[in-house]
Amino acid sequence: MTGVVDEDWPTADLDTLRQLQVIAGAAKYPSYAERHFDVPVRQLWSVASDLERELPHIVSGLRSFTILESGGDRHSGRAVSVIGHRERFEVVLRPGWCLMQGRVLTSGMAAVPEGEGSRFAFYSSARFPGGQVVDRVRRLRAEHRFGKLFDRLQQRVAARSFPDIAE
């Protein structure tokens, strides 16, 4: 084959939610869920993407998240669990998209407009030897855990006032 790739090759444009589905599908031990929210995507994303102030309220087991370095859409952060485990994450944060990768865990969120509201997805995956054992335990309660996560996100969105955000 010579020259530039033929322009007739098919291409696919994936929204942020579909991109997260692809990443979760390629992960070794993924947990993935999504839900529709009856709020505009900008309103939902302004809460979900507030990693330092809102993420600890949304994700159970997370005590704090601190941004350590920032450069455009790339950040480094430190998560501290409720039991004191510290994990450094490399983060890509864009409108409707967040992917976080640490030594032990990869996690992500995505949001897209859907009808009058938004569709939001959350994903996490263990990244260590023996992760399949942890994954089996996580899957037993995944539906319940994600339901609680989405409920907390809904509560945090409802608790905030958004006078300057219009869709």
What kind of sheet is the major sheet? 7 strands, antiparallel
The CATH topology is what? Alpha-D-Glucose-1,6-Bisphosphate, Chain A, domain 4
How helical, in percent, are the residues?
25-40%
Shape: globular
Whole-angstrom Rg: 17 Å
Task: Write up what this structure looks like.
The protein is α+β, with helices and mostly antiparallel strands. It has a single domain (16-159), classed as START domain (Alpha-D-Glucose-1,6-Bisphosphate, Chain A, domain 4, 2-Layer Sandwich), CATH 3.30.530. It contains five helices and seven strands. A seven-stranded antiparallel sheet has the order 1-7-6-5-4-3-2, with helices on both faces.
Keywords, please?
5 helices, 7 strands, Alpha-D-Glucose-1,6-Bisphosphate, Chain A, domain 4, 167 residues, alpha+beta
In short:
With 167 residues, the protein is α+β, with helices and mostly antiparallel strands.
Question: What topology emerges from the helices and strands here?
Answer:
Elements: H1 16-26, E1 30-37, H2 41-48, H3 55-58, E2 62-71, E3 74-81, E4 86-94, E5 97-102, E6 105-114, E7 117-126, H4 131-140, H5 142-159
Antiparallel strand pairs: 1-7, 2-3, 3-4, 4-5, 5-6, 6-7
